[in-house]
Amino acid sequence: MIMDILFLLIFVHIPVLYIVLSIFLRVSFLKIDIINFLIVSIFILSYLGVFPLYFQLDEYRVELGVTNKFLLIQVLLLSFVSSVFLIAGYLLASLCFFKNSSSDLDILNTKSGIYNGISIIKPMFILFFIIVLLLYYLHIVPSIALIELLKGASTTEINLSRSNMTNAFSGYGYFRLVLHNMSIFLSIYSFLLFLINKKITTLFIFIVSFIVTSFSLLITTEKAPFAWFMISIFMAYCFISYNQRFPIGKTLIFSMVIVIVLAVSYIVFMDVSNLFSGIWSVFSRAFSGSIQPAYHYLELFPDKIDFLLGKSFPNPRNIFPFEHFYLTQEVMKIVNPQDYENGIIGTMPTVFWGELYVNFSYIGVLFFSFILGAYICLIRSIVNKIACPVTQLTLLIMLTMHFKDLSVTSFSNYLIDVNLIFLFIVAIFLSKRKVISN
C-alpha cells in the first residue's frame, strides 16, 4: 500500500516537474525540434505506460512476467532523470559552444523563396534508384511477409517471413539504410516543395514517392514504421503551416486517426478480433512496448548477468579486446525462448538508457545522457549550416525522427551512426539550388 502511494505521488508529480522545467528554461515542447520531440517521445513511450503495468491492467504484459512493482518504479525514475540530463547537456552545450543550435528556421523566407528553374532531375533520379532497389530487394528475399499475409498464412509463418526479410536476412541493414531513409527523405522533401511552389511536377514526385515509401514500409507487415512516416509528413505540414509548432487541436485529431489506422492494421495483420481490441493493442504496444524490455534489463542485470562494461557497444572487426554482446537478441532469447527455438530471430530493444544501465549501472545513465544531449546540440547546429531552406527543413525533420528512436532503441546505435552520415549525404546532394527571395 505504501509503495502504491509512493508510485502515484511520483507518477503525478513528474509531469508537473516537466512543465515547471519547460517554463523555467523557456522551452516549448510543442515546438518541432530534435531535443523537444525526443523528450516528448520518452515521456509518451517510456513513462506513461508504466501506470497500467504497475497496476497490472495490461494482461498480456502480466502474462509475460512484468509484475515487479519496484522495478517499474525504477523505470519511471530513470526515464525522467535521463530526460533531465539530456536537457542539461543540450542547454549547456548550446550556451557554451553552439549558440545557433536552437534558432528557428526562417519559415517566412522559405515560403517566399522563388526556386528559379528548379531541376527535378535529382529528385527523379533518387526516385528511380529507390524503385530499382526495392524491386531488387523483393527479388532476392526468400519470402515477403505481406504476400504471406494475403495468402492467409498463420501468424507464426508471417513472423518467420518477417524475420527472414529483416533480422535473419544478410545485408538487410544496407537495404534499410538506403531504401527507407532515402524514400522517406524524398517524400518529405517533395511534400515541402509542393506546399511552397504548388507545382504539378512536384506533386507527382511526392505522390509516387509516397506510394513507394508506404509499400516499402508495409511489406514486412510492421506497423510502427509506417505510422512514424505519416507523423513525419504531418510534422512537415505543421512546420510550414504553423511556424514550427504542433497545433494542439489538429495534432489530437491526427493522433486519433493514426490510432484507428494502426488498430485496423492489427485486425488485418495480427488477427485481432475487433476495433476495440485493436485500439487496446495499439496503446499496449505504444505505451508498454518499450517499457517491458527496460523492465527485463533491470531484472536481468546484474542479478543474472554481470554488467557488460561496454560489451554491447560496436566492435567493428573486433578491434577491441572483447566479444560483442548482442544485447537485444540475447535478452529476447531469455524472455521469449520459444520464438528462438522456432527459428525466429527477435529483438528486445528499449529506451536508450536501458543499454547504458546494463553496461555501466546508474552512473552510466547520468553521464552518457548528459553527453548525448550535448551531442544532439552539436548536430542541430550543423543542420543550421545547410544552405537550401527546404533541404535544411527536410533534414531537421528526418533527424528529429532519427533521434526520437532513442526513446525505443539502444544508445550504441548512435555511436557509429551510418544513418546520420547517409542523411547528411542526401541533404548535401539535394541542397545545390539557387534561392532568390522576393
UniProtKB/TrEMBL annotation:
Q: Which residues cross the membrane?
A: 6-27, 34-55, 75-98, 119-140, 174-196, 203-220, 226-244, 251-269, 356-379, 386-404, 410-430
Q: Does the keyword Translocase apply?
A: no
Q: Species lineage, top-down? A: Bacteria, Pseudomonadati, Pseudomonadota, Gammaproteobacteria, Vibrionales
The name on file for this protein is Oligosaccharide repeat unit polymerase
Domain of life here?
Bacteria
Keywords from UniProt, A to Z, are: Membrane, Transmembrane, Transmembrane helix
